[in-house]
Amino acid sequence: MTTSLERRNSLYGNDLACYERMVEIREFEKITNALFAEGSIRGTTHLAVGQEALTLGISSTLKPNDVVAATYRSHAIGLALGLSPESVLAEIMGKATGCCGGVGGSMHLCDTTVGLLPTSAIIGAGIPVAAGAALAFQVQKTDQIALALFGDGATNIGAFHEGLNLAAIWKLPVIFICDNNVYGEYSRIEKTTPIEDLHIRAESYAMPHMSLDGMDIHAVRSGLTDAINRARTGGGPTLIEAKTYRFSGHSRADQALYRPEGELKEWQKKDPLLVTEKDLIKRNLITRNEIESMKENMVSELTAVAKKVANDPEPELSAMFSNIWTPSKVAI
Amino acid sequence: MTTSLERRNSLYGNDLACYERMVEIREFEKITNALFAEGSIRGTTHLAVGQEALTLGISSTLKPNDVVAATYRSHAIGLALGLSPESVLAEIMGKATGCCGGVGGSMHLCDTTVGLLPTSAIIGAGIPVAAGAALAFQVQKTDQIALALFGDGATNIGAFHEGLNLAAIWKLPVIFICDNNVYGEYSRIEKTTPIEDLHIRAESYAMPHMSLDGMDIHAVRSGLTDAINRARTGGGPTLIEAKTYRFSGHSRADQALYRPEGELKEWQKKDPLLVTEKDLIKRNLITRNEIESMKENMVSELTAVAKKVANDPEPELSAMFSNIWTPSKVAI
Amino acid sequence: MATMRFRQAIVAALADEMRLDSRIIFFGEDVAEAEGPFKTSEGILKEFGPERVRDTPISEMGFTGAAVGAAMMGLRPVIEIMFIEFLGVALDQIVTEAAKTRYLSQGSLSVPMTIRASVGSGLGFGCQHSQTLEHWFASTPGLKVLMPSNAQSAYSLLRAAIRDPDPVIVLEPRILYAERGDVDYGIIAEIGKAQMRATGDEITIVALGQMVNVAEEAIKNSGVSADLVDLQTIIPWDRETVLNSVKKTSRLIVVEEAPLSGGWGSEIVAYVTSQLFSALKSPPFRITAPDVPIPFNGGLESRYAPTASDVTRQILHALKNQDVPQPWWVVEGIAG
Amino acid sequence: MATMRFRQAIVAALADEMRLDSRIIFFGEDVAEAEGPFKTSEGILKEFGPERVRDTPISEMGFTGAAVGAAMMGLRPVIEIMFIEFLGVALDQIVTEAAKTRYLSQGSLSVPMTIRASVGSGLGFGCQHSQTLEHWFASTPGLKVLMPSNAQSAYSLLRAAIRDPDPVIVLEPRILYAERGDVDYGIIAEIGKAQMRATGDEITIVALGQMVNVAEEAIKNSGVSADLVDLQTIIPWDRETVLNSVKKTSRLIVVEEAPLSGGWGSEIVAYVTSQLFSALKSPPFRITAPDVPIPFNGGLESRYAPTASDVTRQILHALKNQDVPQPWWVVEGIAG
Ligand SMILES: Cc1ncc(C[n+]2csc(CCOP(=O)(O)OP(=O)(O)O)c2C)c(N)n1
Ligand SMILES: Cc1ncc(C[n+]2csc(CCOP(=O)(O)OP(=O)(O)O)c2C)c(N)n1
Ligand SMILES: [Mg+2]
Ligand SMILES: [Mg+2]
């Protein structure tokens, strides 16, 4: 079996592998959506269609021992960082084989072997946590980086403000990536946020900031690389605003009927898969036919995964009583 | 007896009365400090020496039915808004005659007849509360204004960020005044805040902002008047940064020994009382001698107040059981 | 009188009050245009317009605090907190500000605001979106806390909350939103008054929210003669009704959705024991969830909150043996 | 062994642990250069330097969350929350994040952080700076909550907290900071273990923090033969010690600083009653503060938390009459 780390390592310097992972994410979310619709998934899901380039840009640029604090919308970042479709889908379906043993669910993916901290379902919570991870790296004098990935809506919550200010004043090696996908739940951004370019909020903390095209993996990598270089050389944090679009509804069965006419269509032209395909074809790294068969293979692989996962074991009852407290010991 | 409202009304268009109130605040704080030192005041006090011009600028510009949400450092704003030295000192000393009946203490002044909401001892808490008061005025279609007064340190807390964003998106008639007195407790501002000019944080909310000299009552009035006009005409909130200096220590017995050599001296040249005296003398509104006798009178008046308050009655035990809940009634 | 879903009863209560009192405004995340993530404000924006019905940014501290300020100035704000956990970033405004405003202002100000929040387990939302968290609001004189158990009480309690002159939190069991029930629009609850869901003389069962329905089923299944007290108001709870019932039955069980340790039921048991010690014929006890975070997996989550069969077993055991039955996780040897 | 003030014992515990373990870092508002608003970090910056000892902005959510993240990555952060009320803007990071990290990561991450916070009434800080608020942390599996009652336990509990692999909150009664006591540097507490402050056989008194000293004085004044259990750990509390004591004495009183309704004492009374109902000879009860916000005025505040004479009166009443005495505000006809 391929480990998360191997799946992660396969991405570095390999645009084709990154593209394949993007396809994986896209097809994975289609299957998730279908499973939710048919009632095979409990609770909720937050699809990450549209996040493929952004998350692959992150995972193919950060090192595996860097860490990421993300949100309930974490299928893409999980798969991008290296988690297997099995372990993610199994978690979404509450199976013992899930990355959190089935006690977490779709909002709580985690795999420390590739740096994915338990994703939080509370808006903004991961922002100070990422700053804290970076604080550890600073104190430990490692060259690791922490990254917080959050939405546009999250920039209106107090934890965003406090986390960025703290990171700036302590010059922590942390990168804040705001996935500005235009919507927070059912609200278009201008309804809740009086500015359009969210990255300028970094000015409040004298923090370097930039906006980039989150639909283009190269743009993501290049911006992130600058920020990483700054962070690794003591230059402190950066706020990156990645302009993206949420191709799906917010969660569960949301059809996103509140979108202005034509908006989706306009953004579909910038679909990260399209953008990357064009690039790869232009660079003669893949052909249209190969893309088609890659997609077909992916669909059948993931279909097989879904079939397998459906029959995976449920967690034992004891799982809900485990990993809560450690007995206290007077030992160091 | 003069009411709070009468004391408030006496300030409008009367620079001399404003100056006298500034003297009152200054001398009041000296007495408070002495009473605390001798053990006659329990708990804590946060002196407002240095806030005289700022608070008088506010109270002589806002109308009495506008409201103010302030903090634990509220002796100056309380007196400026019209509360009598008796009612403030009595509250600080926990007397039944205090503005909160003695159950509040120095951090919790309140007098709704002149718009002082109960001051909060939690940093930032008053900011969304002021926005909410402004929301009420907006919905009620009155022309009232709400004002939040808070410190430089408070601009690092989440409630600041959320309160300003909300006020901006709803275009509420609220004015945020940051009293940048250079210190938050024992920390000079640059230790906790990566920028110097705090008012630029308003850019995060596309909110008008300005910096002004908080030691000069005319500067305060003029800046505030602009903001009020904007607020009253549907232009929404403004963030005003008033540059001031905390002449006292933070609280209780703090001697502020952490101040850089010479800093206090430099700022003492801008002492709001000096600035106003010079202005009034230049305008032939008062003479040096009159100032001296005004100060002497004030000292003896306040000394008499302190003597009286010391003998004021303590609250009854029943006071601690009152004003908690109202019995529920099914009536509108 | 009409039959409707629990969430529709909430809409109806809000609309009925808003029609009567123009001081009422309503806001929260996606409550206006989207009509609420749980559809608890269907039609409200349409009827009352964007001045009184507003979507907020994701800023629980900001908009909760704004409700406090607006209430001080004479409005009657109703706010929606989508999941009770979100008050973890805004508790200050309720506990430390709103609840103390009347006291600090010596009665010259009050904070007539209503905070609606969805709570509870059973829907697969995981450990950060499934708690009830009543205890966050305990020990806070000045606050009132309510929890409905069916469409009627959802309606009646919300109307009472909105009319109340103090800050009131209404905790809505999310799992009940889709349940149907009859609603008599004439009934406005009295805050602080419990409701008898069943009457009997062998035992008193006190429950709240979805546990009232669980306990009701258990009483039916077990065939015992029980008083079932739907507490409705957690703070201040109806001591009189509970004490009277226990005086009659001499036995007390509390059924709680939250973990055993430190839940609201401990207050009921402790208080009743102090007051009626010699009247009690057997040890009072609590049937609760275990002391664990709420698991996502459906099989596990279905064992989290007490089920009707858990409650049935424990009632029958208590009546037969006059002692305290073990919870299922001890009986089944899973944890202890 | 040395004699020192309570706050110096805190400094000593922190310094001793920091010397042994370079993973420990310490931060909070004005804890470094100013050595703490309550002088609970005297000399810490000087000895351990600005990398490990830091002043923070006024951002409780930010720096508490930073401690959570740093702990996940292998540090052992200790943070100071100046007044417990300030967690009202940051509770999320402790209850909803830190306490659930081990669970969600299936044990691959832990959060070995310590949160020190000053609590309690008696010093004239008013109703927003005088509460104890233990109940905010109840019903949160994954969190541990401690409260020392003298210099020795301040020292021993803090060392244990810092060594503990999970998030631990140490609530420090502010009124004790200046109290002196002996400290044996060799003693590191065991979390979850109560301590007997007195032994006797007529009654068991369970108390916490400053109430332990109040209860001790009351026992002396009343001349009764009592077990005095200093709980030390509120969560998870030492059921074994309390149950064994009550088995011996057959009587239970809890003395609490917080308002009656919903405090930690309700859990003790409810649990003990369930387990030892037939062994109890008289009704267990709580001696607490009234259900009011904490008043500022000195005369009023001195009546807020139970005093030694309150406790003495109620112990004697209970032993004589075998029933539950009324609190002073009922006896004196002031409230009820
Ligand atoms: C503190 C808090 N408030 C509200 C929510 C409910 N909520 C979940 S997702 C969401 C929208 C977030 O929007 P954004 O930050 O733009 O991220 P996106 O979902 O678009 O990725 C909201 C309001 C929450 N989880 N936490
Ligand atoms: C949430 C919160 N955190 C910390 C404190 C403790 N505290 C009281 S005053 C103060 C400094 C505030 O500084 P600033 O905002 O500049 O106001 P100033 O005191 O200078 O007027 C702090 C940290 C508090 N009251 N509330
Ligand atoms: Mg978004
Ligand atoms: Mg300041």
CA-based shape of chain C: globular
Number of domains of chain A: 1
Helix content of chain C: 25-40%
Segments of chain C where pLDDT lies below 50 for 5+ residues? none
Q: Tally the beta strands of chain A.
A: 7
Q: Give the name of the CATH architecture of the largest domain in chain C.
A: 3-Layer(aba) Sandwich
The SS-based structural class of chain C is: alpha/beta
Question: Tally of extended strands of chain C?
Answer: 14
Percentage of residues in DSSP E strands of chain A: 5-15%
Order of helices and strands of chain C: EHEHEHEHEEHEEEEHEEHEHEHHH
The description of the largest β-sheet of chain C is: 7 strands, mixed
Bound compounds: thiamine diphosphate, magnesium ion
Low-confidence stretches of chain A: 328-332
Mean pLDDT of chain A comes to 96
- Beta strand % of chain C: 15-25%
Structural description of this entry:
Chain A is of the alpha/beta class. Chain A has helices at residues 4-9, 15-37, 52-59, 75-81, 85-92, 126-140, 158-169, 217-232, 263-268, 272-282, 288-310; strands at 67-69, 146-151, 174-180, 183-184, 187-188, 209-213, 238-243. Chain A has a single domain, classed as Thiamin diphosphate (ThDP)-binding fold, Pyr/PP domains (Rossmann fold). Helix content of chain A is 41%, strand content 9%. In chain A, strand 4 and strand 5 form a beta hairpin. Chain A is globular. Chain A starts with a helix and ends in a 22-residue tail after the last helix. In chain C, helix 1 runs parallel beside helix 5 (151-163), helix 6 crosses helix 10 and helix 7 crosses helix 8. Chain C starts with a strand and ends in a 5-residue tail after the last helix. Chain C is of the alpha/beta class and 336 residues long. Chain C contains eleven helices and 14 strands. The model of chain C has no long low-confidence stretch (mean pLDDT 97). Chains in contact: A-B, A-C, A-D, B-C, B-D, C-D. Chains C and D meet through helix 4 and helix 8 of C and helix 4 and helix 8 of D. Bound molecules: thiamine diphosphate (2 copies) and magnesium ion (MG) (2 copies). One thiamine diphosphate sits between chains A (73, 121-123, 150-154, 179, 181, 183-185, 246) and C (29, 58, 60, 82, 86, 89).
